[in-house]
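Sanity check. The docking grid for iron/sulfur cluster depends on where the pocket ends up, so I'm generating a full predicted complex first rather than guessing from homology. Inputs follow.
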Amino acid sequence: MSIKITVNGQEYEVEGGGWLIDTLNALGCDIPHFCYHPGLGPDGNCRMCQVDYVTDRGARLAISCNARVSDGLNIVTDSENVKRARAAVEEFLLLNHPLDCPICDKAGECTLQNYYMQHDMKDTRQEFKRFKKRKARDIGPTMVLDQERCVLCDRCVRFLRDWAGQEQLHIAGRGHGAFLTPFPGKPVDSPYSLNTVDLCPVGRLPARISVLPYPPGSSREPRRRVPPAREDVRSRSIQRTRPFTA
Ligand code: SF4
Ligand code: FES
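Predicted complex below; grid placement will be based on this.
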């Protein structure tokens, strides 16, 4: 059913009932998001997709991934309020993020990097040491886990649980100490585990084998990713396709 909504002062006739973030993106607004994915639905944990909802009582910030498109909505996506909220979310995500970009497999196609350039672009104000988490953790035959790079968007957890039917990852701990981890003593060995590498908006799950000859943007000679792939994996043909950016 067609309904009318207002976006940035302009009225549009759109299909009602879908997720607001999809409609705004279809209208060309390019709403930043980490945890939302059209195939996984909303989770509401990253807060990056905030927009202003304008009502009689003024504008208020709220996330757009978990709201349905309904008649009469009045949305502003580029107010100062929205820009400040996006910059603040990005700054929080980068608080303890390692400075790995020069060696990260995802550099050049990393959502966190792109959003930093688009919405933050500030030097750090941090005066204390970054919180350390485990790096290059062996979690299964196809990939390793870098807990410091993870932005805890929960996409990989939801994909394995809801689509692959194998709950093999979860987020443990709280606050700045929260971290992504497999279950104790259980490897991540789902045949769909490599899909999570492509779903991940950052480079926290480097695949042990890549069909990319060298990291994007690099002029160096082709190299193998670290840590070295196991024999059994190397002999099989594991392929990465370009990620579906959403
Ligand atoms: S590993 Fe990637 S997909 Fe999984 S929760 Fe962390 S950032 Fe999200
Ligand atoms: S994309 Fe909406 S809260 Fe993460």
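Relevant for the grid: Helices lie at 20-26, 80-94, 111-120, 155-163, 193-199, 231-235.
Also worth noting: The domain at 101-235 is CATH 3.30.70.20 (Alpha-Beta Plaits).
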